[in-house]
Amino acid sequence: MRRSIDDATDDHPGDGDRPPAQWMVGLSDDCDGCDDLRVVLTVEELGRPGTGVVAHLAPVTARRLRAALAAALRELGEEPGP
Question: What is the mean pLDDT of residues 16-35?
Answer without folding.
Answer: 86
